[in-house]
Amino acid sequence: MRIFRLPVGVLVAVLLTWFWSAPISAQRLSAAGNPLELVRLNRVVVEAEVVSSLDKIYLGLGGRRHLKAGTGMLFLMPAMAWQQFCMRGMLIPIDIIWIATDRVVGWHSNLSPQDQGTFTSPGPVNYVLEVPAGFVAQAGIRIGDRVQIGP
């Protein structure tokens, strides 16, 4: 039987290359397979599922039967623009928070699954956060509140 021996320097180099190229921490995912990110509004933290593809933006929270307190869905919109959302396929009441860069610019509160029509942002936004109905009032959210996405 022949034993192959690597010089220690080569072995160390291979191990260091593997160690430094491996991800330090795995991205956490929701039950629906969406990445999870912390969103801070003022001093309140929401654990949000993040969606950015057009099909996931279209689906949103449609069909979901629950949305726990302290959670939500963050939509990364393709452009800073006026955005329109509706309650199509919704089974739960929500608040919609409109965010431009890092500031709250408006919201629609206590939207029911039975609400018809379209809800439009008050100006161009690049993020939309959907949270359980009543969140805006409970958290004391105000126009101009700072928003931080990520750690």
UniProtKB/TrEMBL annotation:
Protein name: DUF192 domain-containing protein
Superkingdom classification of source: Bacteria
